[in-house]
Structure formats: C-alpha cells, structure tokens
C-alpha cells in the first residue's frame, strides 16, 4: 500500500514536471525558430525604412510602415476599448452589485464575445465599414480591433474587480461616497494593477491579430497620416511575405516576426513591472 | 404684580442640551429584514441613547451585523435583503432618504471586523472623507488629519511616513487608521462590527480605551460576542437571538441577572 502511494506520488510529480517544462520548451522552441530565422534577415534598414518598389519581390526597404501602422492601430483600438471597457467593468461591479443575475448574464455574453474567432470580427467590421460608408482604413481597423479587444479588456478587468472585497465598498459608502465616487476613487485604484495587466493583454492581442484587420485596415507601403488612409500591420506584413515564392522574402517575414515577438515580450514584461509598481497600495 | 421667571441664555441652552441628550439618537421602529430563505430581523424596536456605548450581543448569525448595517443602509448592497420599517436618525428615516443618503451615512463612522483602509496613502485615507465633504483647503485638511490621527494615538507612529501606503501598517494600526478616517468626517455615531476580532490583545485594549474616551462625544454601537468586552465597555446591552431582541438594559441587569432562559444559557456556554 505504502509503495503504491509513493509510486502514485512520483507519477503525479513526473506528469506535472513534464507538463510544466513542455510549456516552457514550446515557448523556447518557438523563440528559437523565429529568432534563428529572423535575425539573419533583420537589419537597421528593415526596422527603420519603408518598403521600396518591389520589396515583396526581393527589392530593398524595410517594414517601418507595418511597425508604425501596428502601433497606431493598437494604440487607437486600446484607447477606444478603454473608453468603453473601464466604465463597463466598473458598472458591472459597482452599479450592478445587487443584480447578480444581470451581472452573470453580461459576463456570459462577454465570454462568448471573447471566444468568437477574430476573422468573424473582421467580417463584421467589414460589414460595419460598408454600412458607415468607410473604406479600408486606419479608422476601420481601429474600430474592428477595438471590438475584438473590448470584451477581453472588460472581462480581464472585471475578474480583478470581482476579487475586491465588498467591505472596501462599504468603507467608502460609509464615508459618504456616492457609487460613482466609490467606483473611481476606491474600486479603480484597488484594481489599477490588474487594470494595467488587462490593458496590456488587450494591447498585445490587438497588435498581434491579423484576421480582424485583413478586410478592414487595408495595406500600404506608407505610414498613414490621417485616419482615413489604409494602414499596414505587422501580422499582415508577415502573412504577405510568408506567402511569397521567393526565399529571401520569406526570411524577411521571420524578421518581421522577430519584431512582433519582441513587442509582445516587451508588453508582457512591462505588464509585470507596472502591475507590481501599482500594486503597492492594494488592500489585501 | 405678576413675576415671571427669568431664564438666562446659558440656562436655556443647558436645558435644550439636557433635553436633546434625553432623546434617543436612533429610534428603530418595526424593522424587518428578510431574504427568500427567511427572516433575519423580526420586528425590531429599539432606542439608542446618545453618548453611550450600546453593545449588540448574541451568538453568530443572530442578526447583529445586519442590524448594524441597516442603520446606515449598507444593506442596500445586497439585493437579497428586503428591508422594511423605520430607522430614525435624529428624527429622519434613513430608509426613506434617497438623495441625502451619502450625507446621512457621514453621520455614522463604520469599523468593520477586519480593517479596510482605502488603497491610498495613510494621509489620503484620513483626508478622503473631508474631500468628499467638499473641503479643499489644504491646511484645514492637514490639521484634521493630524488631529484625528492624534486622537486615535497613531500620530507618533506614522507622522514620518504619512505618504506610505495604508497597507504597510499593522492590522491594529490599520483599525485605528479606519477609526481616524471615520472621525475626520465628524460623525455622531460610530458603528463598530466586532472591531477587535482580528486584533491582538494590546491593540484590542487600545481600541477599547479609545471607545471609552470617544463616548463623551459620540454614540457607539458595538457588535460583539465577547462577553468580557461587553462587561468592560457597555452602558446598555441589547441581547439578540435569531433576529429578535430578547432582553436589553443596563449591563448589570442583563449580564448578572438574566431573565430569559436563552440569555442564561448564552451567558453560561456562549451559544
């Protein structure tokens, strides 16, 4: 009996060990493939210059259009998502505190929205674009990506707000706060670290998504000056270059992938750093 | 010749004050709180006298906390609670107030079982309520922060780190900070829901001593199920059992000469 228990314990430990390290291995392997292939093609010119004529057929230039375009699009979409998402998450947790069923229904709907594939958002954004009389542009891309990341932002922030003890709200109310004052001055501050994580999570999803912008943002070799102009993005840049029959262009796709991966890692590290910094006031 | 009694202004003021002190600060009439599962408070009728420590005593789940939270309508946060009856605070029924609810709540400072300082600095915790009251004068706020931290005996411990997060304080200090924060908005009543249950004996004694000092100016309603604490602090004891008030009166009468079997049993084995 005792031997079996020891064996069982060791088996469980072995499986956990394997599972944990296989995740780390996959991540490291992915980074190795992307970086080993991409670093060869990566140069200052790739990062800091716009594509010149025939770039996608092996011509000179870089992917600055896609780097800046991705940044514009993700920042714009994240701002829009924050404007909608933060009041929504606070509303669910403060104003609807007594209406558990309504809270749960909204959460269920947001989870469903989170699960919808991004290509569907792309198709929806395209329909919306036609309805609004827009053409493929930075604005249309921003709206579509904002639609994609808003549920992510709301639910991620909502999960943080859910953990805030009701007694903290009671403390605020008993000092004479209204619901809005409690939401903004107490609940938001208590959830600030989590909000930053949610924000960067949503930003990371926005910058890395290709399908939602496929029909809506267009593609251009230039950096857009107005919201009305089409915009290039890193995921689409990778997609177009990887589809090329020319070996050199395919390698450049990996260079673009290195840049995108670097941004995602940077976002992830920043999220950890910032959330730790803003967690100092949190009441546990 | 008819002679009229001559009243001086001071004498008249003393009479008004005396009269005011005789009227209860809180009057609860027919208060019922229920959920779908059943009644939590059953037809509660209670008068809370001014400047006294009123102890709500009873076993867990008897409705003490619900009664306390009904007084400043924190029951509003729980939809499952249906509240009816009257809770008159200085003659105004708080259950019927809508727009003035935040101002009514400022009349009652709250201390919960575990201290919940706000997620800001020590200074801003005490200043929070003042800012809500619309006070913007920085000197006035600084003065109030200092006065109230001194009042709860915390000033010397924190005066050099007022901008540190409130969560950097010990639990006992946090509870005193919460008390200072509540006192800063100048309430008339302090609602204390087992405020020493998470504290060590030294911090407990500090809070208890503070209550004894504060009752000069405030009415304190204290929820506890620690009999010895009730003996040490109470001016008036209300014993509750399953949502009912079973007995109430002076602690000597209630705790030394209980009339009901339920209270006798509670005093013997605390259940």
Over the alpha carbons, how many angstroms does the gyration radius of chain A reach? 23 Å
Largest sheet: spatial strand order of chain B: 6-7-8-3-9-10
Number of spatially distinct domains of chain A: 2
Give the distance, in angstroms, between the N- and C-terminal Cα atoms of chain A.
Answer: 43 Å
Structural class of chain A: mainly alpha
Count of β-strands of chain B: 10
The proportion of strand residues of chain A reads: under 5%
Number of helices of chain B: 11
Low-confidence region ranges of chain B: none
Runs of chain A with pLDDT <50, length 5+?
none
Written description of the protein model:
Chain A folds into two domains: 2-41; 55-281, MetI-like fold (Orthogonal Bundle). Chain A is built from twelve helices and no strands. Chain A has helices at residues 2-41, 44-48, 64-95, 100-115, 118-131, 138-162, 166-174, 179-190, 192-208, 211-214, 234-242, 247-278. In chain A, helix 3 (64-95) packs parallel to helix 6, helix 3 packs across helix 11 (234-242) and helix 9 packs antiparallel against helix 12 (247-278). Chain A is globular, with a radius of gyration of 23 Å. Chain B has helices at residues 9-22, 64-71, 101-105, 122-132, 138-151, 155-158, 171-184, 201-214, 227-233, 251-256, 261-269; strands at residues 26-34, 39-48, 53-57, 82-89, 92-93, 108-111, 189-193, 219-224, 236-241, 244-249. Chain B is α/β, with parallel strands linked by helices and 271 residues long. Chain B has a domain at 119-183. Helix content of chain B is 39%, strand content 23%. The A-B interface holds A 97-100, 165-178, 181, 185-186, 189-190, 192, 280-284 and B 69, 72, 74, 76-79, 102-103, 105-106, 108-110, 112, 114, 116-121, 128-129, 132-133, 165-167, 178, 181-182, 185, 191. Chain A: It comes from Prolixibacter denitrificans. Chain A: GO terms for molecular function: phosphate transmembrane transporter activity.
